[in-house]
Amino acid sequence: MRSIKKSDFAELVKYITDEQGKTERLGHVRVTNCEANTLPAVMAEVMATQHGNTRSEADKTYHLLVSFRAGEKPDAETLRAIEDRICAGLGFAEHQRVSAVHHDTDNLHIHIAINKIHPTRNTIHEPYRAYRALADLCATLERDYGLERDNHETRQRVSENRANDMERHAGVESLVGWIKRECLPELQAAQSWEDLHRVLRENGLKLRERGNGFIFEAGDGTTVKASTVSRDLSKPKLEARFGAFTPAEGGEAPRRREYRAKPLKTRIDTTELYARYQSERQEMGAVRKGELDTLRRRRDRLIEAAMRSNRLRRAAIKLLGEGRIAKRLMYAQAHKALRADLDKINREYRQGRQAVQERTQRRAWADWLKAEAMKGDDKALAALRAREGRSDLKGNTIQGSGEAKPGHAAVTDNITKKGTIIYRVGSSAVRDDGDRLQVSREATTDGLDAALRLAMERFGDRITVNGTAEFKERIAQAAAAGRLAITFDDAALERRRQELLTKEQAHEQPERNDGRRDRGGDGGIRPAAARTTLNATGGDGDRRDARAVSAGGTVALRKPNVGRIGRKPPPQSQNRLRALSQLGVVRIAGGAEMLLPRDVPGHVEQQGAEPAHALRRGVSGPGRGLKPEQIAAAEKYVAEREQKRLNGFDIPKHARYTDYVGALSYAGTRNVEDQALALLRKENDEILVLPVDKATVQRMKRLAIGDPVTVTPRGSLKTTRGRSR
């Protein structure tokens, strides 16, 4: 870290452990060589250790970033071993540190915040030539753990690296790169100072002396050292070829081309997008200037009003007939009140200025493309995916043989700077790079099913699966369980899917009351065209056919979830002895199983009443009449946030909304297991979680964070203006 201000250990830990509202960002958090158990206590312990060293004025925090190649997903044990070996190799084995694994980019990476002050000796440790030690360590770790080899020794200068970083991360062409691509051969072929100046003028450049060397200056004022472009263009090399330096003479020559900071050339035409980007930057700058001027004028008015009030107060004290000591006390009180007013005014001004700067912050070209892609701009997404250096998803992936078509899942968690969309599906995430899909971390059955359905929407019904044998088996099971109308390119995998589908159908075929298999009333085997996928609207969760074959062999439509007469008993005749083995019953141990008094259950003599929710009448009011899946989603979200709060994360208390009466403010929305949840903040910062429908979510998008709201008896949101949300 070059700046002491940015090396605050507590702020660094808060950043690397912040989820930022994303499911696929924060992975495992690890604390090493600390006695505390929670993150706030860990930060306090490390800060106390740093304050124990009063001699060193250097940066006391070391921020290390360990990144893996795209597609590499080492397991948790391997990540811990790599972290330990790297820290030990740098001499930080006994130092306090906090690490966090991040999954929200195309490259899995670990942030490690290290305290450079030794916890017992209170001495500071600065690794000697850390970049060389890291290069050797990385090469060894790549060999030991079978990771993809990378080039860790750079042969470029710092200025060249910065130019490359500008092009790679911001996506904007640098002056160094432009000169190398457009006119470097002509500059190297010049035979005199006149030829060199002529080539420079034709390309809108000037050669100037700066210090002990030369610089190239573009028309917009951007400069770069000549030796950075090429060692052949350094001052000693040029003077050895052409003699003493001769400045350019004469007027302006016609320009064939000139440097402009614009996006790198790709296969996508970004002219229109870049014009929008520049226009928004200018508008944002004007808005920012106007809002800051308004805040500044308001601050000056408030300060002038406070000073005027203080002058009047002092004049009134002067006219009082009190003694000298009493007046001195009143003058001191007036001065203290003035200082308090000025501090409050300046504090509010700083907060407002920070809010304006964050809201109107100018973004780099790649960041702007990412923000526009998050809003649903397909052109911005295509521009991200056309950037140089982008690699395809590797590992366990799904793709199709047909041409890719636009398709979107329910919830977009994030979009990387390389155009990879991360969809949130429960506890899993599906990554989409435009050509293939990948189920990342914790590949649940729901995640695999969502990936297959998205692949059907994107590529059609012919799917190609790449990855391990275990992954292919789980994909086949998910396709069979979901009755998905797809075909795998892999013949063995397709046979496995059909085998699982046949078993699924045989297992779920119902029996008649006389014990024989029910053939659907028309006999024979139905063709594949007469089958259907899982009914998403069925109330009882059964898989039934929406179409059947008539006696003449034609397909006849049938209403869903309507069984044949006598196929299912009436409600009063259900759950009888015939299906007793399928019922959930309570068994109380007795006889020889209860040998000692301590083995006797406490509810044997006084058994409580069993809940009978099916017989209860619906109760009106907020939070009542919710579906079980809505309640489950709210409770899951509350439990997750409370667990993280107990683990030391800076998270307010969360609870389900019941019948709270009081002031509430809008705190945002969340989506858990495809269920929408509204977050409402109480005056004590406690968050209440209220399940809402999707229509309400769309209307709530008009609200800003912090807007006051109330909850009606029906469970809908209403603003202070009375408009229902």
Any overview of this molecule?
This protein is α+β, with helices and mostly antiparallel strands. Among the domains are: 5-144, BirA Bifunctional Protein, domain 2 (2-Layer Sandwich), CATH 3.30.930.30; 392-507, no CATH class; 628-719, OB fold (Dihydrolipoamide Acetyltransferase, E2P), CATH 2.40.50. Helix content is 38%, strand content 15%. The protein is built from 19 helices and 22 strands. The strands form 5 sheets. Strands 9-10-11-12-8-13-14 form a 7-stranded mixed beta sheet. It has a 6-stranded mixed beta sheet with strand order 17-20-19-18-21-22. A hairpin with a 2-residue loop joins strand 18 (664-672) and strand 19. Helix 3 (76-89) runs antiparallel to helix 4, helix 11 packs antiparallel against helix 12 (324-359) and helix 15 packs across helix 16. The radius of gyration is 35 Å and the shape is globular.
Give a quick precis of the structure.
The chain is of the alpha+beta class and 725 residues long. β3 (97-102) and β4 form a beta hairpin.
DSSP helix count?
A: 19
- Strand neighbour order, sheet with most strands: 9-10-11-12-8-13-14
Helix content: 25-40%
| Overall 3D form | globular
Low-confidence stretches: 1-6, 511-515, 519-561, 611-621
Roughly what fraction of the amino acids lie in strands?
15-25%
Q: Report the CATH architecture of one domain.
A: 2-Layer Sandwich
Distance between the termini: 47 Å
Query: What is the residue-averaged pLDDT?
Result: 77
CATH topological fold name of one domain: BirA Bifunctional Protein, domain 2
CATH C-level class of one domain: Alpha Beta
Q: Would you tell me the structural class of the helices and strands?
A: alpha+beta
